[in-house]
Amino acid sequence: MNKTFGRYQILGELGRGAMGTVYRAVDPLIQREVAIKTLLPNLPEDVMAEVRERFLREARSAGRLNHPNIVTIFDVGEQEGVAYIAMEMLLGRSLQQMLRDSEPLPLDTTAELAAQVADALEHAHQHSIVHRDVKPANVMVGPSGRGKLTDFGVAYVSTSTLTQVGTALGSPRY
């Protein structure tokens, strides 16, 4: 594959969802592996403006945060009508994947991950950012056991005008 987004060279696809695709890539300037999250360009026009704003909000909100339990955002851009976010490449599994294992998580692991997510949320709140979609799928757990909160796409930023009274965002189950 010889595709690029900005200066990032795509190495392969990591995952695909309803709104976009995440790629494994490399930043050739500093030889750092990154994840590139893209927004699908072929979304219906009636939803594209709002989805694009939420996508860019993710980059702006998470990009303002520097915390060991929050995914690091390096860059945001657009190429040929496709918006993308370059972020820290996270190794490991999502908490959702871990919860599907046949063995339950040990209590000390559960408590430690809960504390890490709480620390991440406290840091975000100190910067007037409310995540609004905290769920196991949005917590990545690395091989060392460090949890990282991801996906700030529906975050509330105090200067935002996207949320309307009575509008529910995030994942209803959580």
Overview in brief:
The protein is α+β, with helices and mostly antiparallel strands and 174 residues long. It is built from 3 helices and 11 strands. Helices cover 25% and strands 30% of the residues.
What does this protein look like?
With 174 residues, the protein is an alpha+beta fold. Helix content is 25%, strand content 30%. It contains three helices and eleven strands. Strands 1-2-3-4-6-5 form a six-stranded antiparallel β-sheet, with helices on one face. The protein has a three-stranded antiparallel β-sheet with strand order 7-9-10. The radius of gyration is 16 Å and the shape is globular.
Keywords, separated by commas or semicolons:
three-stranded antiparallel sheet; 3 helices; 25% helix; 30% strand
What is this structure's SSE topology?
Blueprint: E1 4-5, E2 8-16, E3 20-27, E4 32-39, H1 45-63, E5 73-79, E6 82-88, E7 93-94, H2 95-99, H3 107-126, E8 129-130, E9 139-141, E10 147-149, E11 156-157
Antiparallel strand pairs: 1-2, 2-3, 3-4, 4-6, 5-6, 7-9, 8-11, 9-10
